[in-house]
Specification:
Helix 3 packs across helix 9 and helix 5 packs antiparallel against helix 6. Helix content is 73%, strand content 0%. The radius of gyration is 20 Å and the shape is globular. The chain has one domain. It is an all-alpha fold. It is built from 11 helices and no strands.
């Protein structure tokens, strides 16, 4: 029993170190020979935030307090979700050499994709805090819940990534369909508007979108300094755990055919 625990612990240490090295490799390759380096990952959300602020505060005015921080949170959360899910979906097809290497833990590839963009998300957090404080925001004890919300989004994206990565090996159209689905979902997620404008008759269907509850939770702890709504987050956590288990099971079963299908 002690021996099995020893080998299990060694395996976990190996996977942790491999994850760290692969994420570091991806970051270095992404910004190799780049003058601004990792700053490029911040320019896109900043540019989006400025455009949304101009349009919805100067042209079509929305009555939302601290709008710059409000929309910046939505953009950062969405960009992490969207980018990591797209890359995770193609993780097997884009890493044929690693998949064909004997003994390589293929199930780590979608996790690497999501973790890489998690690093980008975390690097943008100090800038977000500057916007919050400059806009008169305040951080309360609810800020301590932020790691739990980040973890929930992390596991949700990995669970979806396992499903899509496994299916994408067999059906290559999945990545193209995902792009269309994410474009539509962008407008059905409260990134640049508040959920209060959603008509009551559509609210039930609208709230089936898990990103609605995640973004609202981020804004609750960061802007409002209050606790997020516990019931939808609890249901989302339960859904995430089920999705992660089912997604991983499907991925493992499909992985025995990855080499011959690539």
């Amino acid at each position: 029993m002690n021996l099995s625990r020893f080998f299990a612990r060694r395996r976990l240490v190996y996977l942790r170190d491999l994850l760290r090295e692969m994420v570091g490799r991806d970051m270095k390759l992404r910004y190799k020979r780049s003058l601004l380096g990792v700053a490029w990952s911040l320019l896109n959300p900043l540019a989006q935030m400025l455009v949304f602020t101009f349009v919805f505060q100067r042209l079509v005015r929305l009555d939302i307090a601290n709008y710059s921080s409000f929309v910046f949170i939505g953009v950062l959360v969405w960009n992490w979700f969207q980018a990591s899910l797209v890359v995770a979906t193609g993780a097997i097809n884009d890493n044929r050499e690693l998949v064909k290497r004997p003994g390589f833990p293929v199930a780590l590839l979608p996790v690497i994709s999501v973790t890489t963009y998690l690093v980008h998300f975390l690097l943008a957090m100090p800038i977000l805090l500057v916007f919050l404080l400059a806009g008169g925001g305040r951080l309360g004890w609810s800020f301590l819940l932020l790691p739990a919300i980040i973890l929930l989004q992390y596991l949700l994206t990995i669970g979806l990534g396992y499903f899509l990565a496994a299916i994408n090996v067999r059906f290559r159209d999945v990545q193209h369909l995902l792009g269309v689905a994410l474009m539509l979902l962008f407008y059905l997620t409260p990134i640049f508007y508040d959920t209060t404008i959603v008509p009551e008759k559509y609210r039930f269907v609208y709230l089936l979108n898990p990103m609605v509850h995640l973004i609202q939770a981020y804004r609750a702890v960061l802007i409002q300094a209050s606790l997020p709504n516990g019931l939808p987050l609890s249901l989302l956590a339960l859904f995430t755990l089920c999705l992660l288990g089912l997604g991983y099971t499907l991925f493992k079963r499909a992985s025995v055919r990855f080499v011959e299908e690539l």
